[in-house]
Amino acid sequence: MKNEYFCAMISENVDLKPFNTFGVAAKAAQFTRFGSVDELNEILAAAEGQALFILGGGSNILLTQDIDALVLKNEIKGMELVEKDDDSVLVRVGAGEVWHEFVLYCVEHGYAGVENLSLIPGNVGASPMQNIGAYGVEVKDVIFEVEAFNLENKAVQVFSNEECEFGYRESVFKRALKGKYVITHVTFKLSANPKINTSYGAIESELKTRGISEPTIKDVSDAVIAIRQSKLPDPKEIGNAGSFFKNPVVEQSVFERIRANHPDVPSYPAETGKVKIPAGWLIEQAGWKGKTFENYGVHKNQALVLVNYGGATGRQIWDLSSMILEDINTKFGVELEREVNVI
Fold it and tell me: Is 169 a catalytic residue?
């Protein structure tokens, strides 16, 4: 019975171009979808011993080769209010939900904490894996717990916020437990009494332009959406995976050396006395912003974003990122790190 179910669901030699926001063509040897833990269990039982590749929204990956494995697309849906009191709410969300639709749900219901993360591409399941962040907020600040399916013992394990081992754009799921678990649900602890965060300068400027002095969480969300739309390309129009590089955290001495030659270098305080420098600023200073190579390049409005104008291969984009890494290291003595997962 399980074998019949599995065979009915499976597709062979599937083009993954529609399933990654870079719009890169790559083949999956086999492909199927699951919408629940039970479906995942049934598929895995029939696929015992096969190599597996878990795919979410495809918004933070660069495919440089075909995938000789069974690709499992996570489509677990649902948004459920678990608990509510005067101060906070717990909302349990399926990993296959679109992130921005979840943010809009929260804004509509007055649940505060994720409005600064509006319009980030991808699905909810990727949010704890990457510890997504933008405009002064990281998702780790609102994650209560993560449910993840153990591919070895076929059981669902609940990870507390602390057990997720969140770091800058990373977590235990991206490092030590990479490939060992499938995130199925994320429970968020959000505020019932909104505390507006407009510390990021661009948000304040946008709100001022709109004549808003006492913003609601919807005002903040709308401002973030406007900012992102003005600076970042829509993956539906131009293939991209958002920010390709992490902002580097450097020693104070490295920062002072850079500032000696570039007094206007922007910076932010980081852990243990270190300094965070915007990677986009470094890349722009090095002359890469807006550079085009045939049908791919660096976006004209945001140097952090590498783009596929149509027909580029993952290997071409990888090679471009390698050239940028080498150039930034040569010119500034700073080693950038890719934020995107390269396959």
Answer: yes
What number of residues does the chain have? 343
Q: Which of 59, 97, 169, 221 is catalytic?
A: 169
Residue 230 lies in a domain: no
Residues 175 and 91 in one domain: yes
Tell me how far apart the alpha carbons of residues 2 and 15 are, in angstroms, rounded to a whole number: 26
Q: Is 243 a catalytic residue?
A: yes
Shared domain for 56 and 103, answered yes or no, is no
Same domain? 46 vs 113: no
Which residue range(s) make up the domain with 330? 239-342
pTM score, whole prediction? 0.84
Residues 251 and 266 grouped into a single domain: yes
Same domain, 25 and 46: yes
Give catalytic status of residue 59 as yes or no: no
Query: Exactly one of 59, 221, 243, 321 is catalytic; which is it?
Result: 243
The answer on 85 and 67 residing in a single domain is no
Q: Is 83 within a domain?
A: yes
pLDDT tens, position by position, 134-191: 888 999 999 999 999 999 889 999 999 999 999 888 899 988 898 899 999 999 999 9
Q: Give the pLDDT confidence score for residue 310 in this predicted structure.
A: 92
CA distances 187 to 90, 94, 139, 141, 164, Å, are: 6, 9, 11, 12, 13
Lowest mean pLDDT among 198-212, 213-227, 288-302: 198-212
